[in-house]
Amino acid sequence: MRIKTFIATYLLFLCVLFTSVGIVSVYLNNSQMNMLREQSISQFQTITSSLGREIGVLYGRSATFPATDFYSAVDDRIRGYARYYSRHNVHLSVTDLALLGQTDRPDQAEVSFVNRGQSHFIYITGLLPEPFGHLQLNYNLDITENIVDMQNIQNILLVSAIAFSAIAGLALHFILASIFKPLHAVAKVSREIADGQFGERIYIKGKNEIAQVAFDFNKMAEKIDQQIMFLEEEAINKQQFVDNFAHEIRTPLTSIYGYAEYLQKASLDGNEIIESAEYIMNEADHMKKIANSLLELATLRNYVPVKSEVPISALFEDMEKIFRIPFEHRINADTIFGQEDLLKSLLMNLCSNAIKAGATTISLEAAQQAGKTIISVTDNGCGIPAENLPKIMEPFYRVDKSRSREHGGTGLGMALCRQIADAHNAEMRVKSTVKVGTTVEIIFTTSK
Q1: pLDDT of the residue at 432
Q2: CATH label of the domain that carries residue 227
Q3: Is 189 within the bounds of a domain?
């Protein structure tokens, strides 16, 4: 790309430069020739006028002098003019057309340029003023020196143009190298990103268009890197979900299969049959809860709640009725904008988790801070270790697996809570200290 740009630009520059030099040379040459022509014509007219006057004076005196003396005097005058002007590269001569018998005489002076080998001349022929119109003055100006000077000037222009074109070519090469250097950096980094090195970036200083391209490219690369990290994280989470689901479903299936096989092969009395069937029903019920929770998670994905104003005090009272235990209430906000059944499900899961954690006191609080409504559930249960906090909202994740299974938990409660919060554009935060308790805050950032 750089070579093509250099060649195209340089050829265009050479065309413009040498066309300009050619135009200037032609203009200077024409100007010089016109100047010499006008100068020669002016000098020719001056000589013609002066010589005509002097011959007229001699002719006026011819009455007292013999005719031979008149022609001799005219010849002397002409030779005098010829000697004087020969110092200025002008050769003069006079032709008597009457003696030559030439009757066809030009009305005005004739000017012509003549080249003889390396020599150049301006020829002018014209008649002297009457009554000496039979005398023709021949004017011959040697302009060889002027032509040589003009050619030297043209050669200097040509050499200067060649030297300037060489310097301009080098300058253009370095300028294009400087311009294309950032583009090469962009191409290099883009190839590295295409090869999977998504952490590569372009570093270009300045505030020009190329620097802006580099900035936009880095921004694009950052977005791609983030998206790939997100996809990798999603892939890990999906694989973890599959692994956790397989682990979660294997236990009840193993129990169901074991008790069913036991019923089929063993001789049991009525009580043992009832007890085995009860175990099968419990495990089946646990699998049903998992299926319902998964269905609810799938339903909430990209779900847009039907929102309305929900009294917060009514939500807290419903929790007391459902769990039939007293809760501590601190209400500093009247209503919240959301879908009532989803908000109830969120609080039910949080309160249920608090009870399963061995809490003896559960506090429900609603507050307004900086235009945001915050609902929090605080308990004095066993708490959650700090290293487990980032994972508690993942499906099927349990801090204490044995206790959760004991209480019939599915490991999907916190995942459901997060889905409900996301559907309401709310942020969910968990703070916990082992053997002290846990606080879960749902921060509703929008009122609509």
Answers
A1: 93
A2: 1.10.287.130
A3: no
